[in-house]
Design goal:
By secondary structure, the protein is α+β, with helices and mostly antiparallel strands. The protein has 5 helices and 8 strands. Strands 3-2-1-4 form a 4-stranded mixed sheet, with helices on one face. Strands 5-8-7-6 form a 4-stranded antiparallel sheet, with helices on both faces. The N and C termini lie far apart (69 Å).
Length: 208
């Protein structure tokens, strides 16, 4: 975090520059690239005022995120009860986080696209890009991120059921990640139940 106070530039508690009349464009550019806050405050501003203001903004942000995520959870539940198709649930998430989301089975073939989105040239190009990520990295546990790809494995009982793939160029925010994790959990339960039912039917046929 960079802080400019009374024309003096600080980084944390360390003075890193002499007095300045305004924030240099270079510092603004670096702050934008690194996605770090850059503050300019008056000389008479007390440190506790600054901390109180920042904490108030953080609390408001967290409350806003939780409200939106909670609303998405309820909307996801209601939609799943009405039409629980994977493509429909993907469409809902894609609209909320404004990013393309699709599903891949463990063999990475036959992707499931959001509703009303058919496999075409653009989709094939995206699919090739996702396949390239899988060729370079082993994605089995936790979120894997290689810009612009975010891959969330659907795992159950040490078995990979598939992948929830998100094409999102900027870094995911707290809200987007929490919404994705909601759908990831629901799809994991759904696909795990589907796998269990398939194994059970196979066992019954074998026993006969």
């Amino acid at each position: 975090t960079l802080l400019v106070q009374n024309g003096t530039l600080h980084k944390g508690d360390c003075l890193i520059a002499g007095h300045i009349d305004e924030i240099p464009d270079e510092f603004i550019r670096i702050a934008d690239e690194k996605n770090v806050p850059l503050f300019e405050i008056r000389a008479d501003c007390q440190f506790r005022w600054l901390i109180q203001s920042i904490m108030a903004e953080i609390n408001l942000y967290q409350a806003s995120v939780l409200m939106e995520v909670n609303q998405y959870f309820h909307d996801l539940y209601e939609l799943a009860m009405k039409d629980g198709r994977d493509s429909v649930l993907l469409s809902q998430l894609s609209e909320r986080i404004r990013a393309l989301c699709f599903l891949l089975p463990p063999d990475l073939q036959e992707p499931i696209w959001p509703q009303k989105r058919q496999a075409g040239r653009a989709e094939n190009t995206l699919l090739q890009g996702a396949h390239e990520v899988f060729r370079k990295a082993c994605v089995t546990q936790g979120e894997f991120h290689e810009p612009p790809w975010h891959i969330f494995p659907l795992t159950g009982k040490n078995y990979c059921l598939g992948y929830l793939v998100v094409h999102h160029k900027p870094a995911l925010g707290d809200k987007e990640r929490l919404m994705i994790q909601q759908l990831q959990m629901r799809l994991t339960m759904k696909w795990n139940g589907r796998l269990f039912s398939t194994h059970r039917r196979s066992s019954l046929r074998t026993s006969r």
